[in-house]
Amino acid sequence: MRRETTGGVVRLASSEVTGLLTDLYELNMAASYWRRGMNDPATFSLFVRRLPPTRGFLVAAGIESCLDFLQELRFDEEDLRYLHETLGFTTRDLESFRRFRFTGDVWAVPEGRVALAGEPLVEVTAPLPEAQLIETVLLNQVTFETTIASKAARCVIAGAGRDLVDFAFRRTQGIEAGLDVARVSAMVGFAGTSNVEAARRYGLAATGTMAHSYIEAFPNELDAFRAFAQDFPERATFLVDTYDTIRGVERAIAVIKELGLQNELGIRLDSGNLGQLARQSRRLLDRSGLSHVRILASGGLDELQIDDLVRSGAPIDAFGVGTRMGVSADYPYLDTAYKLVCYGERPVMKLSPGKVTAPGRTQVFRRSRPFSDVVALYDEAIPAGRERLLEPLMTKGRRTGRRPSLAESRDRFQADLAHLPDSARDLRSPKAPQVRSSPALRRMSADTKRGLTQ
């Protein structure tokens, strides 16, 4: 898999970006639009219809990889041959696909910002066939990364300042998903990742200990600990629960003292009653003069278990969080949609039961204190005390600026999180802030609906 480096970020080479990364019906519609000369500007809005019951907010993510994709998107000759020989597109269609480049504008909620259901995360304005063709990738990337970032953010809230490490790579649903999980979890505050390629690619801290198999490969636990500490004295963390956890702690202490280890030291608890074992381990370490040795807990943790451990006062310094964060196990998807809201000068809307959309290009105006969002028409004046949430990230098919660093996105998240009401941050019974529509948007919705139902 060939990769290129741009601005310190490693991304897929342009040769791997193909117009065939879409659903067939997008190609069908685009070809039909081109045949009929339907090339007027169209605006599509990408949004989440409703939040899962255990979410009080979302963290916007995924748009940056979409911008990379859009700048490189095209159909090469091999793609065109497949479209003609296998899918039956005409020679005229092929010429339209051959000329295709994305030339539109993208307004979006910047990565790391808190967002809510019922308001646009992304708005695309482009000639109708272009805006239609990109639907699948935008939904794929924004839905997945926002899902994971929102789950990871809940873990950060639960950790209450403890370090969290991404252990998800071996359980994510694909290699690229594992890389995305490492990136967006770091964006919301995770301190490191076990995924070495993600650490290299995104400048993250690579974190790792040892497996139970390493312990089992040696004649006894003491030999395993001694060998590991001799090989990696600068970063020795001992997995102590392979046989008997407390004896494992005692053997780790013995090796630390025998070798005079002084640097980054820790023990890892991966099973059993983590709170009780952490207390026992802390007492043993402190009595041995090793108060600087950290305790890392792992083993199928999610935000609720982390919250329970923290609230109980368990002396755990860091948590390794894997499967349940990496696949957002409780709610592994979001109910996202990408809907046409304007074609030419005509606002449009969907009236299907339970899936009604708002017409026209929109903007979100946010007030931080007290926190509230208003969805308005894009050209309305910014109300006093509010800020514009969607920003222009792409104009005429090119980025409007550089890709933000993870640190910048993390700062955005932390600032927004600090302003969220406690009810939205609650881990067990969250209540999302209500999103309101401006009077002008409500009038347009009523007028558009009236015109469609007469």
Characterize the structure shown.
This protein has 454 residues and is of the alpha/beta class. The longest helix has 25 residues, at 135-159. It folds into 2 domains: 3-143 and 334-453, nicotinate phosphoribosyltransferase (Alpha-Beta Barrel), CATH 3.20.140; 149-326, Alpha-Beta Barrel (TIM Barrel). The strands form 5 sheets. It has a 7-stranded antiparallel beta sheet. It is built from 17 helices and 21 strands. The chain has helices at residues 24-35, 63-72, 77-85, 91-99, 128-133, 135-159, 175-187, 196-202, 212-217, 221-231, 245-259, 274-287, 303-311, 323-326, 406-419, 422-425, 439-453, and strands spanning 3-6, 9-12, 41-48, 58-59, 105-108, 114-115, 120-127, 163-166, 192-193, 235-239, 264-269, 294-297, 318-321, 336-343, 346-347, 362-367, 372-377, 387-388, 391-395, 398-399, 435-437. The radius of gyration is 26 Å and the shape is elongated.
